[in-house]
## 1
Amino acid sequence: MSSSKRMETKLIHAGEMRPRVGGAVNLPIFQSATFEYGGEDDYHDIRYIRLNNTPNHIVLGEKLAAIESAESGLVAASGMAIISTTLLSILRNGDHILLQDCLYGGTHDFVTKDLPGLGIDYDFIDGSDPASWEKKIRKQTKAIYVEAIANPLMDVPELAAVVEFARANKIISIIDNTFASPINFRPAELGFDLSLHSCTKYLNGHSDIVAGACIGKAALVKDVKRKLNHLGGTMDPHAAFLLHRGMKTLSLRVKHQNESAQKIAEYLEKHADIGAVNYPGLESHSSHARAAKWFDGFGGMLSFELKDQDADKTDEFLKALQLPICAPSLGGVESLITRPATTSHLGLSKEDRKKIGISDSLVRFSTGIEATEDLIEDFEQALKKISAKVAR
Ligand SMILES: *Cc1c(COP(=O)(O)O)cnc(C)c1O
């Protein structure tokens, strides 16, 4: 399929097998561990599920590459499978990596607890202050790693500076693009070498599988695939089928979520009982200008605090909500709400959380595809309920 087609068309048609298998409109699930030997002369080309080369894997990889305007794509068993495998394919004993300081919890844990044991060193950088990065680079530095939108304050790093810095220093630029999704940001278009996703979130969009993807320069993706073949974090064909099905509606879902999150953020920002609201689509957000420059939409994730910042009252508020489900994860069709101090950032001490701006009363909201008005009415009734309680 011509790569000039638009996003919505690529989501449906890019990468699909031609001719269709048995004429089926949908790609079947190839539930076969092994395939007939076809004269392959490289171990990695033998057709076997763990070697990530069944039709289900190949079609998804090509579709992902097409929607992010990149050379190559690869799927894996989970976001963490692709993140750990990618880092292990690039870094060796003695190497060093620079990473943004507010990483996804699992990535932070992997980097700080597992990499040192392999002789791999790291330094954290402030993603919004490129002038400070030069001081931390070393002869051994192999890569710079950031997240498109960082959890839970929704900060966007200086993305163009990351690409320039990587080029100037001949190191690999890697971005976790999970929160933005390919609808709002396509890292390869800005020059990133590799884009990683937890497809568990927006790409699948239905909170029913875990999955991961690596998209970018063909030579690098090939190395990641070889490492994935060895480490074995392979996507199951049935999960591949669900991801493929979920991706077809990615654009419809994310565009609705962009719009809905913007309206909810504006509603919350005006509400007398609400304190700070963190959403890149708000002009008050410190990353607004950066997000507006590089993104096609501001995403479905926002966070906020009640004005009096009381953790118990915040829990009462979460209990009073009838629509959003109180659960970790994000990017699904249903709205989810959490208090990061009790979920994603439970691993940090109260002081460490405070240092990075995460109070115990901070609430993170993942906008689903419910009617925006119903979500706002639900916030309204829950806020009324808790303020009535306090007044009594
Ligand atoms: C969820 C998430 C991950 C990890 O993905 P899994 O699919 O849970 O392994 C990595 N990065 C970000 C930004 C995430 O939100």
## 2
Amino acid sequence: MEKSSIDPSFIDIEENLKVINERIAQAAVRSGRKPEDVHLMAVTKTVDSARINHAIKSGIDLIGENRVQEFLEKEPELNLDGVSPHLIGHLQSNKVKKIIGKVDVIQSVDSLSIANEIAKQARNHGITQKILIEVNVGNEESKFGFDIHETEEKTEEIAEIDGIRVCGLMCVAPICENNLKLLNIFENMYKLFIDIDSKKRDNIYMDFLSMGMSGDYETAILGGANLVRVGSAIFGPRIYTDKH
Ligand SMILES: *Cc1c(COP(=O)(O)O)cnc(C)c1O
């Protein structure tokens, strides 16, 4: 991974958040919704606790971590009062036990077997774990998630497992230079989201449509996202160390 030459201490988190919130508000209004209908998640992978706390102090109430171990290491140092943490990275089954009950939502449920393991550990903890179903919307080999055509069926199957509650869908869109094509991809996700919601199945609550990142969150909102996951546009380019 290429190292960034930008010193993170020069990144103005508060100013970045101001700009992003403004853009989110504009995109929300353009899509016929209110600014407060779209949630901004700060994606905190590789970001140290002090900077995460700074973002929280600046108004962030939703954070997303990719890795279980990294989240557990930082968690004791975070001021999570009133903040909802989500897991957004691919989850290995041997890590499930450690994260159950520590995050409000596991967004990255990308297989039936991981859903079963999450449910099992949740039952052991006496809780119901909220999850989102990850969709590989661009049908990319390098990405996790269900094929868009099988998502509805799998979502229904997963919703029947005791110990979890399906609360929506998430995706990472393919890199796409053509903005109309990208918008179309997000709209396909939205259609699926509405379709599944309209069936009113037991244990399926389509609360979150989680899509859009630093490079495409406005397009995602125009396509129907109500939760955008933004990392580098808030915190600056990620600096990877050997630990991550
Ligand atoms: C890293 C990451 C993001 C944020 O990416 P940026 O481009 O830095 O905004 C969002 N979602 C997932 C699943 C990620 O892994």
